[in-house]
Amino acid sequence: MNRKNTIPIIDSCSIDLNNKTTIHIDDLKEYIIKHQDMVFPHKHNFFHFVLFTKGSGEHIIDFNHYNIEPYQIYFMVPGQVHTWNFTGDEEGYVVNFSIDYFQSFLLRTDYLERFSFLQGKIEQLIFVIAEQFRKQSIHILEQISTAKAAGQPEDYIRTLLLQFILFISISTEKDHQEHSTPYNHKIFNSFQQLVEQQFKSTKLPSVYADQLFITPNHLNAICKSYIGQSAGEIIRNRIVLEAKRLLVNRNLNINEIADELQFNDNSYFTKFFKKSAGLTPEEFRKQL
After folding, report:
1. Most CB atoms within 10 A, among 2, 139, 163, 284?
2. What is the structure's pLDDT at 119?
């Protein structure tokens, strides 16, 4: 099966269409006008986040619908599928930056992995900024925009963006971190990374537990303490999500998708998908 055909509709445009830079910040209203022809399910090959200061309508990330509200922020990682249905009154900021934007700047190349909202987990990528943090959030984004427009050194802009990410982390993750142990947090993050790498070939929680040197029961307990789902549910949800992403591409038939996800036969894949999604793959595709 041709690998390039396994990818759904993609937005393959550069971060900045004019300057080919590795970071782009824009006024949300202007960005929507520039990209009004992109209102269809698509992917990015870069990190993307939007902060709404006002607006209505909805945006759709990995087939989940979210109503817009003031000071809502969402983060997307490369590979997620999204589109939007705005009503035209949106205001705010949009920032895109490349996957390797910090790699030459930080000694730890995996530094961004510490931020849960940059890991593409649907339960963590969207939230509303608390009122006491809103003014400072806007201030940092304005600094990035001003520095970018003035042609300031790239490392200075990187520092401002990292400041924003750290500020958002402090304002949103403090309570969760206070109720978790460093060990459990590391295990949970490691499990999520393993699932992301192996979900096509490895579908049993016990195999992941062996790799993490813990028991399946312990793994389940950690997963439930974080997001209320068992390890098996997390694995199944990731497989179904990938199936939905592939179903966006109508050039792929169901047999090819089942093969890509390493199911032994089409019928088992169809039963698996329907049990989790409530629809057969064909019904889901028609719904799209």
Report:
1. 284
2. 84
Exposure of 105 by Cβ count < 10 A (0-12 exposed, 13-18 middle, 19+ buried)?
middle
Q: Is residue 10 pLDDT above 80, yes or no? A: no
42 in Cβ contact with 78 (< 8 Å): no
Q: Are 140 and 163 in contact (CB under 8 A)?
A: yes
Residue pLDDT, tens place only, 46-56:
999 999 999 99
Please check whether residue 149 is in contact with residue 26, taking contact to mean a CB–CB distance below 8 angstroms. Answer: no
Q: Is the dihedral of CA 258, 264, 270, 276 positive or negative?
A: negative
DSSP 216-246: HHHHHHHHHHHHS--HHHHHHHHHHHHHHHH
| pTM > 0.85 | no
Greatest mean pLDDT among 26-40, 78-92, 208-222: 208-222
How far is 22 from 4, CA to CA, in rounded Å? 24
Q: How far apart are CA 65 and CA 78, in angstroms?
A: 19
Taking Cα atoms as reference points, which of 80, 103, 108 lies closest to residue 22?
103
- For 219-259, write each residue's pLDDT tens digit: 999 999 888 899 999 999 999 999 999 999 888 999 999 99
Question: How far is C-alpha 112 from the geometric centre of its chain's CA atoms?
Answer: 13
Q: Classify strands 23-27 and 91-97 as parallel, antiparallel or unpaired.
A: antiparallel
Chain-centre distance of CA 280, in angstroms?
Answer: 25
User: Within 10 Å of residue 266's Cβ, how many Cβ atoms?
Assistant: 16
Count CB-CB contacts under 10 A for residue 226.
22
Domains of the chain: 3-178 (2.60.120.280), 182-287 (1.10.10.60)
Residue given tokens 């309570």 in the structure block: 175
φ, ψ dihedrals at 153, nearest 5°: -55, 145
